[in-house]
Amino acid sequence: MHAPAPNALVVRTDRNAIDRFFRPRVIAIAICLGVIGLCLVGLVALLVSTSTSGAGLPSSSATIVVIAIAVSTTSTLQLVTFVRQWRRMRAIEVRVVADDGGLRAILPGLDAHVPWHAVHHARIQGTGPRHRMTVDVDAGAIVGVLPDSQRRRIARRGLSLSALGMQPGLDAVAHAVVVGTRGRVQPVAV
Known about the structure:
Layout: E1 9-13, H1 15-52, H2 61-91, E2 94-99, E3 102-107, E4 110-114, E5 119-125, E6 132-137, H3 148-157, E7 159-162, E8 166-167, H4 170-180, E9 188-189
Parallel strand pairs: 5-9
Antiparallel strand pairs: 1-2, 1-8, 2-3, 3-4, 5-6, 6-7
Helix pairs in contact: 1-2
């Protein structure tokens, strides 16, 4: 990828904002996982004590254990996914660079440069942590190493830039899109 021009807009990651978003969610999931684990241990202890007292296992006990294990496994996977995403977002120093050559987006698993002539439309959606800008581009013009599946997804859905942890925010990127496309593309709020 090319080095940004001196007059380029460089959007960096605000790690404190990333932490403020992810930390409470990770803690909540971990607490839920702990409660589920304690309930599962209690359920197994109850089933073991019931079966050793001679009453036999209730017919639904196996189903309850399977459901509890499925819920705890799902919660564990959700926790691992959140922590992984948190670490990947924090690791990105520069998220967006907009200069005379185009728009460069650096996302977890993606580093792509889109020339301004390949930008067709931009829309701003959501508020708060869901605030994002989606840039519709000609996926064939994207410069960067992209798997075909990712290139097809960008062609179908556009290049999505989350405002979470952007410093400066999406307003600066939206302005850069207007300037870079010489007014041809005006980001629309939907």
